[in-house]
């Protein structure tokens, strides 16, 4: 997530990168991932340190499977929604941890807080739109 959070240029670029990752993980070419397939294949990605995802991790990142399709599978749209949420959580964590090191005045912290709230609202609206699109499909 660290590299992905730094490298993407815009929303379209992020979608393309997540789609490419999904295709790498979908070794069967079925257009969907089971929890087993995702957990097994994520270990094969060339990341240092290696990524490991357990079934309980899968349940967690999918919000108790609510972000999966009705059959429990993850398609490209669900994968993108899951990964965007994980990226958002990672970015928030990093921003919070770095904020302790900043020496900003109160006005700057208020502005930073406002930016975080706007970002959270935009992400929430986007996620609602993706969920609506997913329910229509």
What is the fold's blueprint, element by element?
Blueprint: H1 2-7, H2 11-25, H3 35-42, H4 55-61, H5 76-99, H6 106-136
List keywords for this structure.
mainly alpha; 6 helices; 137 residues
**Multimer state:** single chain
Principal-axes geometry comes out as globular
- Order of helix and strand elements from N to C terminus: HHHHHH
Would you tell me the structural class of the helices and strands? mainly alpha
Radius of gyration: 17 Å
- Tally of strands: 0
Cα distance spanning the termini = 28 Å
Strand content: under 5%
Explain what this protein looks like in three dimensions.
It contains six helices and no strands. It is an all-alpha fold and 137 residues long. The mean pLDDT is 80.
What does this entry show, briefly?
The protein is mainly α and 137 residues long. The chain is built from six helices and no strands.
